[in-house]
Amino acid sequence: MQNLDIVRNLYGAFAARDRKAILEIFDPNIIWMQNEGFPGGGIYIGAETVIKDVFEP
Asked: Which InterPro entries does the record cross-reference, listed alphabetically (predicted)?
């Protein structure tokens, strides 16, 4: 699978709100840096934390 395929799959999972698919794509130790100018800005570590604190507030 190429990087472009991974990104397309991830965006598809976001659009479908498919938590299981997102977790399969994310590295379990992902570090997500949300711009401080955006709501919820900060650094989030771990796939479950990113989903819970960035995508499900």
From this structure: NTF2-like_dom_sf
